[in-house]
Amino acid sequence: MWLLNTSTAELRFFHSPSSVRYAILSHVWRDHEQSFQDLQTLRAQFFSPDGSPRARASSKIRECCLYAERAGYKWVWIDTCCIDKTSSAELSEAINSMYAWYAHADICYAFLDDVRDKENPCAHRSSFRRSRWWTRGWTLQELIAPKTVVFLSKSWHFVGTKHSLAHVVEDISGVDRAVLVHERSLDDVSVARRMSWASRRHTTREEDRAYSLMGIFGVNMPTIYGEGPHAFIRLQQETLKVIPDQSIFAW
Description:
Blueprint: E1 2-5, E2 11-13, E3 23-27, H1 36-45, H2 59-70, E4 75-77, H3 88-104, E5 107-111, H4 138-144, E6 149-152, E7 158-161, H5 166-173, H6 177-180, H7 191-198, H8 208-211, H9 214-217, H10 230-242
Parallel strand pairs: 3-4, 3-5, 5-6
Antiparallel strand pairs: 1-2, 1-4, 6-7
Organism: Lentinus brumalis
Domain DUF8212: 230-251
Domain Heterokaryon incompatibility: 22-119
């Protein structure tokens, strides 16, 4: 996996996530996210005064690096720029490994760029409860897999943690509190229940509706963009091989 050095935003490849201590980012993609190639170009051109790409990286990448660095982390993973998406093999490996990468991360920063600063996240009409982050398909595994999740507002201010806000997060996401705080294993949760957590979430690509759930069901399969709804059929077939629960066909 590729990781960003938090002090320079330079990319380095590591063969195993277990060999390094790193933070990881969960967020909603917006227009004009910087890619793997963009950061490599910044590094090659030495645009910034200190000779590293961090000063010229996007505000999201720069602020994430700074936040992680202040917390003592040398490395951080961000999906927009830590995957070489021009390589179909690397993209497929990353998608199949993503749940494990989030699970192995020392901490996950959930950046909610539509959440206001200095508000009570538990309030009934809070921007925290209404954040778009809760509607995205990929953020389900990013919520469940890491042991520690820190929620951050649009200005990178601390909102709370998955543990401290567990009752609110359960209410918003539908995911059982015991699963959120890792008191109960996913293996003890029925397929139908796990599917219900994803039922109100959306993905930009139709195939990602299935690919984003592979880690939730503990399966691996090739990613084939262009296969459309067949991806979900393959997900059901692969899930049945490891979890003989016919309730999956209700979805």
